[in-house]
Write a structure and sequence with these properties.
By secondary structure, the chain is of the alpha/beta class. It is built from nine helices and seven strands. The chain is 39% helix and 17% strand. Strands 3-2-1-4-5-7-6 form a seven-stranded mixed beta sheet, sandwiched between helices. A hairpin with a 3-residue loop joins β6 and β7 (240-244). The longest helix has 16 residues, at 46-61. The termini are far apart. The chain binds S-adenosylmethionine. The site of S-adenosylmethionine (SAM) has 19 residues, from α4.
Length: 246
C-alpha cells in the first residue's frame, strides 16, 4: 500500500503541474482517473470521471471565477480529481454527511428504495471487494487519509471537508464555478439545486452524476431545467453537465 501511495505522489507531483486557471495539460486527467480507480476510491466509472474532467477543463479554460464544490464525497475519489484539476488558489468545498447515506423519500422511485434497503440491511458490498464506505466507523478520517495519499491537504489549504446534511451545510457565500452533484436521491439533489442554482456563476457548470442512474435525481433536475431558461447542455451521457449561459 505504501508503494502505491508513493507512486501516486510522484504521479501527482504535489499539484505543482496545476497553475492558476488557464489550460491544463490534457494528458494529466486520464492518468489521475486511472490512479483513482486503481485505488478503488470512486463509485464513478471512467466515463463519468471523464465527463467531470471535461467540465473542469472548460471552466478553467474560460477562467470562470468562483469556488468549486462537491455534494456527495463518499470515499473521496471524484473529490481527488476535482482537487487536482482546480486552479491552485480556487477553494474546493467537499460536502457529505460522512456516514450512512440518508434514506430516499416520496419522490424517489423503486430503484432508489430497493438500493437503500440493501444498504440499510448492512449487506451492501463496497468497491472491488472492499467494505462499503457507509459502514466505516469514522468515514471523515478515512476520506482525509485518502485525500492526503494523493497529496491533497484537507485541513490547511484551499480544500475543506464540510460534514453534515446538505440541508444544513450548503450555504455558498460567493459564486460557484463548478459543482459536482453526486448524491443519488431526489431530496438531496433538489436541495443542491435550490442552494447552488442561484449561486452558479455565468459560464459555471453543474455536473449531475446520477441523471441517468436514479429516477429521483433525473426528476429534480428536469424540474429545474423546465423553470430555468439560462441553462444549456454541455454533455448528456452517463452524467449530465448543465452550464449557466448568462
Ligand atoms: C454515490 S456517493 C458519492 C460518490 C463519490 N462522488 C465517488 O467518487 O465515489 C453519495 C454520497 O452522498 C452523500 N449524501 C447523499 N445525500 C446527502 C445529504 N442530503 N446530505 C449529506 N450527504 C448526502 C452520501 O452519504 C454519500 O456519501
Amino acid at each position: 500500500m505504501r508503494n502505491l501511495f508513493r507512486s501516486l505522489r510522484s504521479l501527482f507531483g504535489g499539484n505543482t503541474a496545476n497553475p492558476d486557471h488557464g489550460q491544463l495539460d490534457p494528458a494529466l486527467p486520464p492518468q489521475w482517473i486511472a490512479a483513482i480507480r486503481q485505488a478503488k476510491l470512486s463509485y464513478c466509472g471512467p466515463p463519468k470521471l471523464e465527463n467531470l474532467a471535461e467540465a473542469g477543463t472548460i471552466v478553467r479554460r474560460d477562467r470562470v471565477v468562483g469556488r468549486w464544490l462537491e455534494a456527495g464525497v463518499a470515499l473521496g475519489g471524484s473529490a481527488i480529481l476535482l482537487a487536482q484539476m482546480k486552479p491552485a488558489r480556487t477553494p474546493l468545498d467537499l460536502h457529505d454527511v460522512f456516514g450512512l447515506i440518508p434514506p430516499p423519500g416520496n419522490h424517489d422511485g423503486p430503484d432508489a428504495h430497493e438500493r437503500y434497503a440493501v444498504i440499510a440491511a448492512g449487506t451492501s458490498p463496497g468497491i472491488g471487494g472492499d467494505p462499503y464506505y457507509g459502514y466505516e466507523s469514522d468515514l471523515l478520517l478515512k476520506v482525509k487519509e485518502n485525500l492526503r495519499a494523493f497529496d491533497v491537504e484537507p485541513d490547511t489549504g484551499t480544500v475543506r471537508c464540510v460534514p453534515g446534511l446538505f440541508e444544513h451545510t450548503l450555504h455558498p457565500d460567493g459564486p460557484v464555478a463548478l459543482a459536482h452533484i453526486d448524491c443519488d436521491w431526489y431530496d438531496s439533489v433538489r436541495v443542491c439545486i435550490e442552494r447552488l442554482g442561484p449561486a452558479l456563476a455565468p459560464g459555471g457548470i453543474i455536473v449531475f452524476d446520477d441523471y441517468s442512474s436514479y429516477s429521483g435525481c433525473r426528476r429534480a433536475v428536469d424540474e429545474w431545467r423546465a423553470r430555468d431558461a439560462r441553462l444549456s447542455v454541455v454533455f448528456e451521457r452517463r452524467s449530465l453537465g448543465l452550464r449557466r449561459t448568462r
